[in-house]
Amino acid sequence: MNLNPVIFFKGLSDETRLRCMLLLSHEGELCVCELTSALDDIQPKISRHLSQLKQAKLLLDRRQGQWVFYRLNPELPDWAKQTLDKTCSQNQAFIQPNLAALKKMAGRPDAPRCN
């Protein structure tokens, strides 16, 4: 995959999209309802941001019953994966509240986790 750095960084330029990408980098795969809960935001807003990331080819999705799960595009170039991994590992305090909210979420969909 030949990813234009402008497209990649534009995808990360919004805080909601950045948090989604970092949570997906950390967790491997999450459904829209999990991201909604983790980010304490409304589903239409989260879905709009996920759609933008998918259109930029940064994310892939899959349907499992009523759930739509998102994950990082495995074809992201190494530099993009490394940027996300490093940002996630060096900024745990940034996503810690989101991870805590995710952990407390009741009724999480049962899906195989990548992580």
Automatic annotation (TrEMBL):
KW rRNA-binding (keyword) present: no
GO biological process: response to arsenic-containing substance
Entry keyword Amino-acid biosynthesis: no
Top-level division of the source organism's lineage: Bacteria
GO terms for MF: DNA binding; DNA-binding transcription factor activity
Classification via PROSITE patterns: HTH_ARSR_2
InterPro entries noted in UniProt: ArsR-like_HTH, HTH_ArsR_DNA-bd_dom, HTH_MetalResp_TranReg, WH-like_DNA-bd_sf, WH_DNA-bd_sf
Entries under Gene3D superfamilies matching the protein: Winged helix-like DNA-binding domain superfamily/Winged helix DNA-binding domain
CDD domains named among the record's database cross-references: HTH_ARSR (cd00090)
Keywords for the protein's UniProt record, in alphabetical order: Arsenical resistance, DNA-binding, Transcription, Transcription regulation
HTH arsR-type domain ranges (all copies): 1-91
NCBIfam families in UniProt: HTH_metalloreg, PRK10141.1
Protein name: Transcriptional regulator
Originating organism: Pelagibaculum spongiae
